[in-house]
């Protein structure tokens, strides 16, 4: 990602993947930004690029989705109001990474070899079920389940959970998040989806998630090599 006088470019594969929370936050910020998509065939020529300061220009260039996400979340006060709130939000968000990554990989290879897909599905379901057990307890400790992870306002953890639940539904993997198993997570989802500053994001994201539900159809990207 590059940031120049609050103009942003988010460069990622032509896929939602691990950059999706960053896209949501950029919408939330109502930022001036551009989504730069690369094909997987282009990746070998790009992966050795090292981010820098822009050769003295007032440009911030960052790599790694986690660093970018936290930077953007700070711009929108989506990491709480205090250091204590920030570390709690970071910890809850970090505990979602495995589930998000496994879900993204399953969606990416949807329609592939049956044995491989069964393995990916099982890995995702196990991660999601463990996430639900832990996070339902976490959410209950925050006001008895008020629709937020920390305090009474939106955070990057709230947004990321909503993304996971929304993506899971597009490929029929929402069972771990059923209302009877995850009632407090549903409150978080509902609050994030209803947030007025995320309306444009969800309108775009739902359509992209549906398009992606058929798996990636271009380029030479072999599951066995991952």
UniProtKB/TrEMBL annotation:
Domain GST N-terminal, first and last residues per copy: 6-80
Species the sequence originates in:
Hirsutella minnesotensis 3608
Q: Which residues cross the membrane?
A: none
Q: Where is the GST C-terminal domain?
A: 82-213
Q: Which PANTHER family match?
A: GLUTATHIONE S-TRANSFERASE (PTHR11571:SF150)
Under which name does UniProt file this protein?
Answer: GST C-terminal domain-containing protein
Q: Which GO terms describe its biological process?
A: glutathione metabolic process
| One annotated GO molecular function | glutathione transferase activity
Against InterPro entries, the record matches this protein to: Glutathione-S-Trfase_C-like, Glutathione-S-Trfase_C_sf, Glutathione_S-Trfase_N, GST_C, GST_superfamily, Thioredoxin-like_sf
- Provide an example Pfam family for this protein: GST_C_3
What superkingdom does the record give?
Eukaryota
